Amino acid sequence: QPYIQGYKPAFNYQSQLKRVVMAYLAGHQSDFDLMLDSGESDQPGALKEVDWTRVLDEERPERVPSVRQPDREFLARKICFSEREARNRQLGELGEEFVVEYEKFRLTQAGREDLAREVEWSSKEKGDGLGYDVRSFRGNSDEERFIEVKTTNSGKYQSFFISGNELDFSRQNSTQYSLYRVYSFNKQARLFRLPGALDDHVHIEPETFRASFR
Fold it and tell me: Which of 23, 52, 133, 143 is deepest in the core (most CB within 10 A)?
């Protein structure tokens, strides 16, 4: 679940705390439904005036070496998936636009206006499935950088979803790949970068599986 911004999420917790929280949620289903939709519930708006010099966060989230995963709980809840999907899609597109503008600013500041004009919003111009969203350039050189963008209204430690296609692309193109995590988008948007293969930086956990008869 989305955590309180300004507080780093607790990776370890007492088992008694979990039991008390679960007991409360079991008796307060409506509160649980509200909490589930609260993390990204704000409707994203158009890009506002941004101080691009303050966008980049050089401090990446620390990777916790080992986390004990809690037992899976099976709780009923009602979610409007179509509404959530539309909202997340809009937020994702705005985050990609944000990164495109940041890359243009960065390259212009480096004296490479020529490269800034060549920054490509690839997922919009070519479509999905490439394994990245934005094609830019590494440093201020002519070497291409492939950027995957993940955007959230929550804080920098909020987890995100990665497809198998995106993960494989990051591994096969690790020297030219970076994931840009845009966070606190609906407040004061910032971003940090994860260069190289994604599993060098984050724990990858399977969420869905394909079932077949072969």
Answer: 133
| 94-130 pLDDT, tens digit each | 999 999 999 999 999 999 999 999 999 999 999 999 9
Which residue spans within 19-174 are E strands per DSSP?
134-137, 144-151
- 29-36 and 15-27 helices, crossing angle to 10°: 110
Q: What is the pLDDT of residues 128-152, one digit of tens each?
A: 999 999 999 998 889 999 999 999 9
Quickly count: other Cβ atoms within 10 Å of residue 198's Cβ: 20
> Are the CB atoms for 101 and 56 separated by under 8 Å?
no
Residues 140-166 have a mean pLDDT of: 93
The total number of residues shown for the chain amounts to 214
Instruction: Collect all residues with Cβ–Cβ distance below 8 Å to 66 and sequence separation of at least 6.
Output: none
Q: What separation in angstroms does the CA of 32 have from each of 64, 157, 159?
A: 27, 21, 19
Residue 186 near residue 44 (C-beta atoms within 8 A): yes
The pTM of the full predicted model, rounded to 2 decimals, is 0.79
CA-based radius of gyration for the chain:
19
Q: To which H or E segment does residue 141 belong? A: none
Beta strand 177-183 with 134-137: parallel, antiparallel or unpaired? unpaired
| CA atoms of 114 and 121, how far apart (whole Å) | 16
